[in-house]
Amino acid sequence: MVVKEAMRLYPPTYFFPREVAEDFELGGYLMRPGDIIHLVPYVTHRDSRWWDEPEMFRPERFTPEAEAARPDYAYFPFGGGPRVCIGNSFAMMEMQLILAAIAQRYRLRLAEGQGQPLVEPLIVLQPKGGIHLRVEPR
Question: Into how many domains does the chain fold?
């Protein structure tokens, strides 16, 4: 649940471009074949229609019951459908294992003066200027 909530707030990819295959209307705009739309998980994952207090870190959003109650594509850090990232399952497993290994031995705290990280939407979403941490043994 912790990893999924982290991916909600900071999805690895800022946006997914997709080409429209058939006519459809979106928000009063007609989309036609060949048009390009951008799906932006960073924005969708902060939409208050799907997320209560969307800026807060709350892992309990990912209990099985909460996930079942949420509409499809309210959460899509690795894309979705037939073009979902092929490495998403491996990435989620790897993040859980690394988090568990680090959390057993160390406590990570923001370094003095770090403040809230700003995001930089490049090919992947990353913290602008990095994140400085203080590592303390447990």
Answer: 1
The pLDDT tens digits of the residues spanning 22-36 come to 999 999 999 999 999
**44: part of which helix (H) or strand (E)?**
helix 41-44
Longest dimension (CA), the chain: 57
Q: Say whether pLDDT at 96 is over 90.
A: yes
Does residue 128 belong to any structural domain of this protein?
no
71 in any annotated domain: yes
User: By C-alpha distance, which of 9, 20, 127, 18 is closest to 77?
Assistant: 9
- For residue 53, tell me if it sits in a domain: yes
The whole-number average pLDDT for the span 108-126 is: 90
Range of the domain at 44: 2-106
